[in-house]
Amino acid sequence: MRHVTANGLNLIKQFEGFSNKIYLDSAGLQTIGYGHLILQHEKKLFKSGINATIAEDLLRRDIVIAERAVIRLIDTYLNNNQFDALTSFAFNLGAASLQRSTLRRIVNRGEHELVPSELIKWVWAGGKKSLGLLRRRIAEGELYMT
Question: If DSSP codes are grouped into helix, strand and coil, which group holds residue 112?
């Protein structure tokens, strides 16, 4: 199976940020590390916090879902940077968002030059434009085009 490269992993880590303690994400879900959503059975496990090594291990496990989504949903050849950018997108927004998106159709048609402008459409959180999401989508678009 194909995996995100170190560049892609670093992009995701940069925008997810690291927290060694449990916090509530923008959707109000308990999260830790680099955006790991805490499952019910994990609450006691992470109660005392985690270190960066454990956080990266969790991220690598969590990212497999996004990698598989990109592999399953994208029918055209992707270079490593394109794969990494789409994996970051799918990790952040979920496989369902990629599946139903115009972004997916654009990529599968090979219209790669349109990808950065399509990514920019995905910057809304809670009904408001998010500067953090805007930065992430710009970075994903730049990575995709390199």
Answer: helix
Residue 25: which region, alpha, beta or left (left: phi > 0; alpha: psi -120 to 50)?
Answer: beta
Q: Which domains does the chain have, with CATH numbers?
A: 6-144 (1.10.530.40)
Question: Which of 16, 67, 118, 140 is the catalytic position?
Answer: 16
Taking Cα atoms as reference points, which of 30, 88, 81, 25 lies closest to residue 59? Answer: 88
Clarify whether 16 is annotated catalytic. Answer: yes
- In tens digits, what is the pLDDT along the chain, a chain of 146 residues? 999 999 999 999 999 999 999 999 877 899 999 999 999 999 999 999 999 999 999 999 999 999 999 999 999 999 999 999 999 999 999 999 999 999 999 999 999 999 999 999 999 988 899 999 999 999 999 999 99
C-alpha to C-alpha distance for 130 and 94, rounded to whole angstroms: 17
